[in-house]
Amino acid sequence: MTKLEDLGRILLANSRNVNGNRKELTPAERSAILAARAAGISPTQLAREFGCTTRTIQRTVTRYKNHKTVESRPRSGRPRTRPKKVTKDGQKEGSGVEKGQ
Length: 101
Known about the structure:
The chain is an all-alpha fold. Helices cover 43% and strands 0% of the residues. Helix 1 packs antiparallel against helix 2 and helix 3 (43-50) packs across helix 4 (54-67).
């Protein structure tokens, strides 16, 4: 077994979420892919080792060339908020209205 195969097995230990879908690549996985590509390992071989498609390997390399980082980019959309708690008297906590006013 090669060092790349060992690394692929370690990184893939938690590669699926509870629904069985593939999780997003971690920065460690992206770094390993970039290092292996720089060493001349083919996208097909990397895809087998990391349990993803060759397109994922190609996109990872392209994103690194364009953005110079292995971190995830921010996503668009509204941030999630937590619902405000309602007190016994029906007021929402944090609404700016205090008791006794």
